Amino acid sequence: MRLYRNHLQQKQEEKKKQKRYSAPWVDIDSEDDGRPRKTSVKINGTAINGHHKATSPSHNESGRATSDAPTATSSKHAAIQEQRLNLPITKGKDALIREFRENDVTVLLGETGSGKTTQVPQYLLESNLAGNDTIAVTQPRKVAATSLAARVAAEQGVKIGTLVGYSVRFDERCGSDTRIKYMTDGMIVRELMSDPLLSKYSVVIVDEAHERSLRTDLLISNLKVIQRQRNGNGTGENNYSKAKGKEKEKATNPLKIIIMSATLDAEKFAKFFSGAKVIYVQGRQHPVTIYHSLQSQTDYVDSAMRTFFQIHTDQPPGDVLIFLPGQEDIEGLEKSVELFAKQLPQACMEVLICTMYASQAPGQNAKVFNATPPNTRKCILATNIAETSITIPGVKYVIDTGKCKEKRYLARNTGGGFDTLMTRDITKSSAMQRAGRAGREGAGFCFRLYTEDAFKAMKPSAEPEILRCGLASSLLQLKCIDQDLESLDLMDEPDRDSLISALKTLFLLGAINQKKELTPLGREMAAFPLEPVYSRAVVASKELGCTSEVLIIVSVLSASSKLFTDSSEHRDAISESRRKFRHSSGDHLTILNVYKAYQDITKSESKSGRKAWCKKHFLNERALLEAGEIREQLVGTCQRAGIDPKAEGGEGKEEEVIKSLAHGLVANTAFLQPDGSYKQVMGQSVVKIHPSSTLSERKTPTIMYDELVYTNQIYARGVTSINKGFLAGLGALSQRQA
DNA sequence: GGTTCCTAG
């Protein structure tokens, strides 16, 4: 395939002639016949099913299903049923049911669009394989859980929260009659703490297991143990009738496990469950023609731009999705595409640029879903958010830079104790997932800004999260159910250093003792859905009488969206506006000021007034709303734990708030050195206050911080000035010698 | 002078 290069670009490229690629792309996928592939269900390599009628894809698994209200008219219901029958998985229904009946553990390998996530729970229910208990279907993301539940409820013709329901943080739609329950993996891991055998569920379906989130991994390990306890010492044979005959206590109802994975790792799951059956279900995806660049492109932002204009000037209509590692590159590319688009000849289609990344305001993100205006091509610049979380309609072309950013925890005893955030090459499965985004609605094209050899050299799939992140929080949760990261049978064992780091953190906080045993304080802390450093602060605030303030601060810090919006464009206006909320002690009390100011506004202003106020002060209202929900939840936890959530230090008691936080952040402290940098109290690292902090550029003698992140340097984020004498009182200094 | 993506009765 040859790509047209226009005059404008040629001028631009003359300087970089040596970098140019003459015949830019190599076709590695010739399966471009414009027809959806035939579908089949294979069991252990054997296809047990034949051809499928070619139809347009009726719905996707990530589910844009909420519009199908359960009050559907009969014709609407009929339409839904027909869509159901046309799913690739439908022809394999009987074979699947047979397999589920015969096996306690099944690994279901299903491509996107196969319908496995919506159909399998219904098959189990309809064939009475779940007995009278509930079928749990876990998801790594909240949106997926809620929208899938809505879709399946519509298919069953019931209202959500009756036969079909969901359970995610802050939102539960379940009743006593709920038999199919979609939930986040975090939710079921929390349930383990009160019901270690998960006795409510007769089937647990772990979806998106290939993503290997920390919570999914912990769930899978626990399921293996639970199944052994509930089914007797099962050796792969069906223990259903055996267990039933015993009529022991209620918890002995048998458990079936279904692991659903998109690709590749299926054998690993099967092996983990001592040779469980693997079933393969093909999906429905339109063909995507993939092109690789002939030479590796070092300046991926620039070559993404050139590739976009090649498509734009040469290819038929269809939107373009460009994958970039982060906000900075997105903003940069946005500017240059804008600039070039203005100089296009009259005959060209217009270019509409949409940007999409998690920290962008929701309204801005939502713009990609607007219909593309006539004679216009959408150019969507996105991070990984468009890879799995969100499906954008209308995309026919994908440009893949092959880069992403990855967070990785560096253990304390290897000179770390902080997260690194680096741009790195993506994995094979990620590259395939990105390419697939071009084939959702019809045949598509993917342009990779890296060579075929570079693709071949990529790692097959991402490292599981358990090898990449801090473990203190999970370890504390496990300790509460008498388990341990060391003794638990895990698919991948975490790093020794990472484990020691987590133990050290919990010991410093007083959550475990020298014998690694859970302390009463640790149990108190574990009740809070917070990082241990923050639950420690909440517990400390009880004595210091300022729980109300600490809950606010900790809630804002735990929210997934950032409180302050950031854009290189209005940098000065932003810092000017922030001065109003600034507290001289640092970021934590500044957060408190912002939250209180917002609370005041809420009393007098309408919804739109609040929104305008946030916009004016460059605040992210979503963060404030989310913090409000978290705070409410924490108030409930406090009440159950016998902590008065309304206890307020009030005016003049700011010191108490800082002290409470310091109980949690003891290990996150540093001293000013003569050269203006900071040195960790515990650890050897030299750190710098992040430029976004109110304390950056100030010479504060002693600081505590929420976290360290290594990007270009080691930055401390969320910084507050702290009294050195008080720090010594917490034992932080003596720990240093130990 | 600068931040991928998720998530917790």
From TrEMBL:
Residues 97-282 form the Helicase ATP-binding domain. The keyword Membrane does not apply. CDD domains: SF2_C_RHA (cd18791). GO terms for cellular component: nucleolus; ribonucleoprotein complex. Pfam families: DEAD, HA2_C, Helicase_C, OB_NTP_bind, WHD_HA2. InterPro entries: DEAD-box_helicase_OB_fold, DEAD/DEAH_box_helicase_dom, DNA/RNA_helicase_DEAH_CS, HA2_WH, Helicase-assoc_dom, Helicase_ATP-bd, Helicase_C-like, P-loop_NTPase. GO terms for biological process: positive regulation of transcription by RNA polymerase I. This is RNA helicase. It comes from Dendrothele bispora (strain CBS 962.96).
